[in-house]
Amino acid sequence: MASLMKSSRMAARLVTSATRVARRGYADQMDFTLASGNKVFYTNQNVKQVSSRMAARLVTSATRLARRGYADQMDFTLASGNKVFYTNQNVKQVDVPSFSGAFGILPNHVPTLAILKPGVITVYETEGVSQKIFVSSGTITVNDDSSVQIIAEEAHPVDSLDASAARDVLSKAQSELSSASSETAKAEAQIAVEVAEALVAAAS
Q1: How far apart are the C-alpha atoms of 77 and 180, rounded to whole Å?
Q2: Which of 16, 81, 82, 101 is most buried, taking the most CB atoms under 10 A from its CB?
Q3: What whole-number distance in Å separates Cα of residue 7 and Cα of residue 63?
Q4: Is the pTM here over 0.90, yes or no?
């Protein structure tokens, strides 16, 4: 709560400063306030000019802070080589598998960059509505404006997976791992086994 109040106050200060700059433009003198989370630079100080570029940056920063402080949804994009599932769609939560551990993404999540692990992404669109999508690999990016992008190598809705076909894929991958002779072939086969195991688990 303290962090939320701090962000809200900071956003209010930035909005006030940016609005003054935008409204008064290049008047001979103007009261100017510039503050950040760690320092107050100006407080109602008379200055002659503030560039429009600075005003734009202030507005952008204020908008981001306000969005992070009050958002209960986030813009979500999920795309793979075979299909685009979401494009800047508002969702409430996304649960993802990653090599650093499975985790949930909510609005106001800290900026993050992670590598997808083979498994199931669960997207909570609205209350009581969710979608499960299997991904083989890819990247997860959580931006400072609460938007989230997931780019997957391959992705399919869980309800479209065939359990029998998944087991066949796993059996073939295990056979290739057993017969691999070089370190490169073994590494590639091991990756195939891990993806197939996750696929079987998702389809079961």
Answers
A1: 38
A2: 16
A3: 11
A4: no
